[in-house]
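Quick one: structure for this chain?
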Amino acid sequence: MDISPQAQHMVLQLQQYQQQAQTILIQKQQIETQLTDVMSALESLEGAKNEDVYKAVGPILAKMKAKDVKKELDDRRETLELRIKTLTRQEGKVNEKVTELSDKVTKLIQGPAGPIA
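Got it. Here's what it folds into:
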């Protein structure tokens, strides 16, 4: 079956948007995993008010005040949550484009006479 150059171009665009949607989904999952780790660490620090704790800094453990580590983790949590919101918005826009292009390609390939048998 021959399809027009316009349809071929739209199919390529559709594939690019699908790849972009997949990339965004993977990034979002990775950030959600990081957020889960941060939340777990914050939960672990709940009992340690003014105590010293050890934080991994590269290959060593550094002794720090629990409140300082908690502050760092809270900042990291906020950053990760913001990044997830941004990726969710991007994901929605890309998925809208995928749906839109998919509909256009289907209509273009089917033509005015309906589906090709």
